[in-house]
Amino acid sequence: MAEILHILNGDSTKSIFEKSTLKGDVLVWREMLCEGTLHKKIGSDAFWKKRYAFFEKELGVSKLDYYDNTIKEIIPIEDLQGYDEVVLWFEYDLFCQINLIALCTYLLESYRKDILYYLVCTGKEKGEPTLQSLSDYAAESYPKLYGKRLKLTRNNLLFAQESWNLYVENNPKKLEAFDFTKKQKFRYLQNAINQHLERFPKSNGQNQIENKLLHYIDSEKWTKKEIINEILSWQKKETVYGFSDLQYALILNKLHNFYVEEEGTLKLNDLGKKTKL
User: How many Å apart are CA 68 and CA 90, to the nearest integer?
Assistant: First the structure.
């Protein structure tokens, strides 16, 4: 019987996966590489130092907790001896797509010809009006998703590495010029990069998300929680960010110079009014 390693995009997927009939070992990729400082060499000391610093400073996650929850979980990827098949389970959104190309780059470091690499990436589903996440499927559907998995060749992994290096460099002109559709097995990557380009500053110095938050603050007397709920709804309908409420809370807090909080609700100050598009 083939020995299979499933690398999942998050713990919510793991909870569903474990209820399915699929066999194999499971690892969870607990990173958010769409945020924070990065290094091209994944798994290097320089890479981990940058991630340690980001999680500690921005999220209040200690080095020990980051190691236990993230590094300790994915270190086994460096030595895949004993496995015949590695399956990556990810989704269409920016959050997942950046983690995916990073993981493919990481896998390239220990690439083995005797291992088959596969991708399960959810998004478009016949009969569904919206793009689907892994959490939209019941455990009984996971074997069917597995059955539709796409084989990843070494050339596919090299393309992911090239895409990752460009993302880390984060030059908007280079990102706009590169064709992220060259490998159809990464069918959602171009849309994700297009969404990422919206995170570069507009004419007022703020990006799409920041401008949207300023708009919400100016439109109603809302609490921070209500504003985050609104932007999560907007995200689902109009974007492919795939961000969590935590990420939006961080962005909102960084805009504190543009608003005041009165009786629990937010209001733009003079600077905010001048800044808002």
Answer: 22
Given a contact cutoff of 8 angstroms between Cβ atoms, the answer to whether 150 and 157 are in contact is: no
Measured distance CA(104)–CA(210) in Å, rounded = 31
Closest CA to 274 of 223, 218, 220: 218
**pLDDT of 161:** 98
Q: What is the pLDDT of residues 155-194, one digit of tens each?
A: 999 999 999 999 999 999 999 999 999 999 999 999 999 9
Tell me the whole-structure pTM to 2 decimals. 0.96
> Is-contact 158 108, C-beta < 8 A?
yes
